[in-house]
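To illustrate the input format used throughout this study, we show a single complete record. The first block contains the structure-token representation of the backbone; no residue identities are included at this stage. The design step must infer an amino acid for every position from geometry alone.
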């Protein structure tokens, strides 16, 4: 199975480096993506749009074997990008796995709340995150994260999501709860909370708890591998 790995804000494809070996050892082909504008801290990302990121994922789907479906794994804001790629290629995706994030609905922004500077969104100070987000990340891990982080394009966080094909709701989803619990997520869905409203339309959703901070590919990579493999096998 081709497994496409879509990072969240401030991260490139190397953020999956502790996950890829486990997926490949199980016989799968892992494709960690570095999205446009995230190649280095020095590139000009001021004109990179949300559509550019979605198109990059769609191209990766198209590059896979045409007779085989793929699994899309998104992390954080990458869940919304993956969801838009599901919308663009619903017949090519066997399952989507959303890790620590939600499938943003049509017309909504992915992460408009983060401050932007000169067309990009830098990694905020750690004090801006909740303690639950930072679970299992000691000072050394936080320093390494900040060193490797790349500012995300502002328009990726602000542009409205555009979804057009309701067949996206036929693609099964595994929702992986990290700094929150699946019980909390189910409550938000039942309450009709805006950020999770897409879940109310998806016909097949599995809920999985992976208690850690917001970045399980860094803090609990082996457990994340097991979750992804279970999703693939299902």
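Output of the design step:
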């Amino acid at each position: 199975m081709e497994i496409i790995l879509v990072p969240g804000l401030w991260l490139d494809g190397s953020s999956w480096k502790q996950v890829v070996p486990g997926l490949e050892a199980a016989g799968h082909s892992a494709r960690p993506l570095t999205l446009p504008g995230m190649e280095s801290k020095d590139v000009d990302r001021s004109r990179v749009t949300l559509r550019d990121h979605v198109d990059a994922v769609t191209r990766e789907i198209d590059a896979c074997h045409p007779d085989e479906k793929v699994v899309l794994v998104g992390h954080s804001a990458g869940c919304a990008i993956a969801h838009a790629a599901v919308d663009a290629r619903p017949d090519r995706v066997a399952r989507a796995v959303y890790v620590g994030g939600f499938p943003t609905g049509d017309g909504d922004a992915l992460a408009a709340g983060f401050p932007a500077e000169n067309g990009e969104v830098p990694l905020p100070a750690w004090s801006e995150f909740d303690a639950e987000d930072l679970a299992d990340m000691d000072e050394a891990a936080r320093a390494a994260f900040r060193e490797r982080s790349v500012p995300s394009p502002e328009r990726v966080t602000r542009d409205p999501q555009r979804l057009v094909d309701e067949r996206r709701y036929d693609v099964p989803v595994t929702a992986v709860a990290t700094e929150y619990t699946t019980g909390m997520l189910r409550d938000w869905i039942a309450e009709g909370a805006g950020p999770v409203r897409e879940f109310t339309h998806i016909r097949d959703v599995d809920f999985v708890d992976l208690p850690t901070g917001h970045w399980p590919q860094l803090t609990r990579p082996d457990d994340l591998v097991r979750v992804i493999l279970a999703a693939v096998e299902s």
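Structural context for interpreting the output: The chain is about 30% helix and 15% strand. The longest strand covers residues 93-99.
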